[in-house]
Amino acid sequence: MEMFRLTIVANSKSDRREEQKQISVILDIFRIHVRLSKDLNLLSIKKYSHFMELINEIGRLLNAWQNSIKQNL
Description:
By secondary structure, this protein is mainly alpha-helical. It has one domain. Helix content is 84%, strand content 0%. The protein has three helices and no strands. It has helices at residues 2-11, 17-39, 45-72. It is elongated, with a radius of gyration of 14 Å. The termini are far apart.
């Protein structure tokens, strides 16, 4: 939910870099939580793989968004 909030806040600003950094940190923390869930056998390998695919896609989208901001500066 915090990533969604930060995305909305960032889209209302001309300089979005700080919010993008915060979103990146939250995504990294979420990656760690999912990995720990798998390590503690709370997630199956199949579900873990699916989560990681989705998380990695969000990471790719975030990187593309950050790169588009850099090009516009």
